[in-house]
Amino acid sequence: MTVLTPATEQLDELVRGVQGVDALYPAGSIVENALITAAREMAHRPPAASMVATEQRADGLRVTAKIGIGAAESSGDVCRRVHDAIDAQLRQSGNSPIAQIAVIVARIG
Amino acid sequence: MTRSEHPPTGERFVAFDLNDTDREQAGLHGHTIEELSDYLDRGRTPADPSIDDSPECEIALRSLERLRRVQLNLLDSDLSRESARDDSWVSSILDNISREAHRGREIPLAHPSPTARLVVTEGAVRGILRETGDRMANIIVGRCVLVGDVEVPGMPVTVQVDVTIFQGENIPMMADRLRQLMFAALQQYTELVVAAIDITVRDLYVEPDAAAAPKGE
After folding, report:
1. Is residue A3 part of a domain?
2. A101, B116: Cβ pair inside 8 Å?
3. Are strands A60-69 and A53-57 parallel, antiparallel or unpaired?
4. Which chain B residue has its CA at the smallest distance from A109's CA?
């Protein structure tokens, strides 16, 4: 069986398009994000575009999206919409089994 | 200073040493509240991705902006007596903004799928609760703490809020209104079981020599 890793840029676009999402933040760790930023600055390249983090583990694919939502929204509703959108995208594109889809509301309003 | 999520009883405001630990630094993505204040002063230019890409920094920046507006309003209304006023409350609030903007614990949101992990961060909730208070006129939120096991669904949680209210306001009415707004915000943004929202009026903002110089004289 061929294991496909989803393009995180596509997931970024997907999440940004979900109703109620008004910001998408890097979902990697602070250290990871700092290293990526530093490496790209040294290479005179623009900051990395990918925000949604994906990790292939033995039990399947783990996806993490960290978002900001508008004040008029409900955290639960937006989170569920983001989760369901990612889930549908992964299933449609035939990716490896999904171990976890994490959606973190990190800012409101 | 030893920090804890819950301040010691009777402590006026929770303050912490910004240089204390790596954890505190990481909470604002390695930035101090002073650096964020300078960033605001510069109009957020040149753009710093390490700040702009951090939700914790964004929460702190927005709180700083609101605090500055309050300070400006006070200055406008109190300019001639500025030198007599004690502004230590501002530094207390700055400390609390920095502390509360940290990501904190993860508050779960329900989803039927076993592979779903949906959460709202404690920092995001504290941020919107502070903003809820700041939207009210003549009240300043000093501190906001979620007490209880917020990471376990169904566990009762208490919110402790310290505020400063301006002279002349009806304190019980203001507290009731703030409690209603905060409860509504918690209902909208979390699935927490809120047992109580305890509001403590720690300070009254009184014009320094209002009694000595009443209107009309």
Report:
1. no
2. yes
3. antiparallel
4. B128
Q: Which domain holds residue A82?
A: 8-108
Inter-chain residue contact A76 with B109, CB threshold 8 Å = yes
Q: Using CB atoms, pick whichever of A33, A34, A107 lies closest to residue B55.
A: A107
From the list B103, B109, B115, the residue facing A75 with the nearest CB is B109
**pLDDT, tens digit (0-9, with 9 covering 90-100), for B53-98:** 999 999 999 999 999 988 887 777 665 555 445 667 788 888 889 8
Q: State the Cα–Cα distance between residues A86 and A101, nearest whole angstrom.
A: 8
Strand bridging mode B106-109 / A98-108:
unpaired
- A-chain residues near B124 (CB < 8 A): 75, 105-108
Which structural domain, as residue segments, surrounds residue B119?
A: 22-205
On chain B, the residues whose CB falls within 8 A of the CB of A23 are 55, 58
Answer whether B167's CB lies under 8 Å from B205's CB: yes
pLDDT in the model for residue B167: 86
pLDDT at B35 over 60: yes
* Mean pLDDT, all residues of chain B: 83
Residue B157 in domain: yes
Task: Match 């305890």 to its residue by tokens.
Answer: B198
Per-residue pLDDT, averaged over B163-183, amounts to 94
Instruction: Answer whether residue A77 is part of any domain.
Output: yes
Q: Could A79 and B56 be called an inter-chain contact, meaning their C-beta atoms sit closer than 8 Å? A: no
The pLDDT assigned to A44 comes to 61
Chain B, nearest residue to A61 by Cα: B115
| pLDDT(B20) > 60 | no
Residue B187 in any domain: the answer is: yes
* Residue B62 forms contact with A (CB below 8 Å): yes
Can you spell out the DSSP letters for A5-41? PPPHHHHHHHHHTSTTEEEEE--S-HHHHHHHHHHHH
The answer as to whether B10 is a domain residue is: no
Number of independent structural domains in chain A:
1
Q: Tell me the CATH number at A41.
A: 3.30.70.1350
